[in-house]
Request: fold
Amino acid sequence: MTAKFDLNDGNVVVIIGSGAGGGTLGNELAHKGVKVVILEAGKRYEVSDFINDEWASFAQLAWTDARTTSGTWRVAKNFPNLPAWIVKSVGGTTTHWAGASLRFQPHEFKALTTYGKVAGANLLDWPLTLEELEPYYARAEDRMGVTRTNGLPGLPGNNNFKVFHAGAEKLGYKECNTGHMAINSVERDDRTFCHQTGFCFQGCKWGAKWSTLYTEIPKGEATGNMEVRPESRVLRIEHDDHGKVTAVVYADKDGKQQRQKARVVCVAGNSIESPRILLNSASSKFPDGLANSSGQVGRNYMRHTTGSVYAVFEKPVHMYRGTTMAGVIQDEARHDPSRGFVGGYEFETLSLGIPFMAAFLDPGAWGRSFTSAMDDYPNMAGLWIVGEDMPQENNRITLSPTVKDAFGLPVADVHFDDHPNDAAMRNHAYAQGQRLYDAVGAIRTFPTPPYPSTHNLGTNRMSEKPGDGVVNKWGQTHDIGNLFVSDGSQFTTGGAENPTLTIVTLAIRQAEYIASRMKARAI
Amino acid sequence: MLDHHGARGAPHSPSRRLFLRRSSEMAFAAAVAIGSGGALINATEAWGLEVKGLKPETMKTLILVSRDIYPHDRIPDRNYAIAAKPFDEKAAADPKQKDMFEKGVAQLDALAGPGGYFGLGWEADRVALLHRIADTPMFEAVRSTLVVSLYNQKEIWPIFGYEGESFSKGGYIHRGFDDLDWL
Ligand SMILES: Cc1cc2nc3c(=O)[nH]c(=O)nc-3n(C[C@H](O)[C@H](O)[C@H](O)COP(=O)(O)OP(=O)(O)OC[C@H]3O[C@@H](n4cnc5c(N)ncnc54)[C@H](O)[C@@H]3O)c2cc1C
Ligand code: SF4
Reply:
């Protein structure tokens, strides 16, 4: 039975956001008997509401409220008001995500130690290690039903994977398979297996792909300890004279302001909104925003070094058929500075439909060079590059001095400049991706620029020392004992891997810590 | 300058040459007539388009500009007319937008010389003019609208071999997700 908590119930844990971090944390806490209220800005849809249509689905689920951009990244030019492709709905971006679920490599938790000082980068080691996280990774993989873990079979390879795999073999790559995917390859957890629909980015209408919307959230609700309030937009977090947070103010579906009292607050609004909420909660006691004594809130914004390579062949591929991202090559994920950059990257299969391909293949391009590529769509294969990017202090989320949202609060400005290491990695990956397709007979290849950010990380980073970051190894803010960060903004560095498995892993681990601290009456 | 094989000498798939070129050359000027009420009428393709905000001549030019920006020889004019409709709608709703489109098209006509934009028989010559105005707000407004209003028309997806919605057909699990056999 879904719980219903009173606004004045000061014993609840309030979680802001119901995505990978928030949805998982809520379910974990609820199972431990902790009372949880999840405030979610978006509406609640069900699996049957999802739409197999790129723009229509985007309009249904994506966060399209105003944001601004600055910096030299190309997204600022082509998509000035869409820095990120993330979701505003119950389930958060786990409705749109593709399901690729890879663990970090051991050295990626020690970026500063492993890579050394990199000019212009604000590198730091994580305050935890892979060994510490391993048991939680195992639980996250089990929870999400990740293929190729816990004895689950891999997904079958689709046409796009066949081309990818053949190219990988020609290049001598050894670590190529259909991925570690949080998508059922067999019926499991009362959800069916992947039917190869090809609309993973639009919400899986079969429910085969893991999303908190139809796994963690209903399971948490079933405990009777968790209430999810959709269309509840958090405006700010309040605190008392001792500097403890006490309540969360939000606008309900009618735009009316409500105040939910809280014993603990966990921020999980993804890496643009989470720092924005902390900054917008500035007070006379905390004039630079909550938990910001380090000045690091909003800084070190990372988005992974990305890009795509599409290639046209003489014969049909029909890459859009089947799982969107079930294919990975991990040979380039190692740290090997002889390639001209630190850190590494993964290749993953990727496909877009015609509407998104037109918008993203070469944003702003027109004329026959562009349209002849579109004409060859059936014969196209595609891959995505995802690699570690460098945290930089000035890549950051700030409050816009000019643009305000419907509630009168400054919107987020997202500033990003590529670091030379990012550019070197991307160029290496483009060249390898093009070689891969050339090796299996590509007629033309297209090094496609990064899309609006799907991976948003680092803006409330974890650090050993309070001066270097915002939260400790448990995601607890250094400054305020009962304020936590529970999403990808905790990441100290990004690693080469898609982030969600690690976000879920940290949330499971954080839940244990919060529950034990509550029991000990420490918070 | 772009020729109509693409700026970077794109290789052709042999099949494409077999498709009829539509009215992207002179034919378009003749194929689309302006009716008495100011509507655009294409008798061959059997469609008409009521124009509300812009001069019919302006709309007619914008339809050709749309094809010149995103030329697909297998797509009939009808779909370019549908793609261009938002320009007329924006002009009808907002005098500033109307002014931008009218002035932008007048500028194109002036650059083209005596016969106007339509007087330039070769796509390559028209595209050269478009490059000269590519930094103007009007061009960017036209291009960024078209990239959705053209490619989001379900009707043309089969021309690109894109099958669209697949859930209702059971996905591709029994419909060729792994049917590639040429490797
Ligand atoms: C197309 C696409 C494909 C992807 N594929 C992969 C993949 O294959 N593998 C992978 O690891 N990752 C992938 N990702 C990224 C992944 O989805 C995110 O990393 C993950 O969902 C982030 O989790 P989160 O909890 O930080 O935030 P989210 O899941 O984004 O959830 C945040 C939630 O907080 C809500 N919120 C924000 N502000 C407020 C507020 N003020 N008040 C109330 N609620 C608020 C939002 O509405 C949202 O629902 C993909 C993303 C996209 C867009
Ligand atoms: S391809 Fe598989 S995982 Fe993706 S949407 Fe379809 S059924 Fe779901």
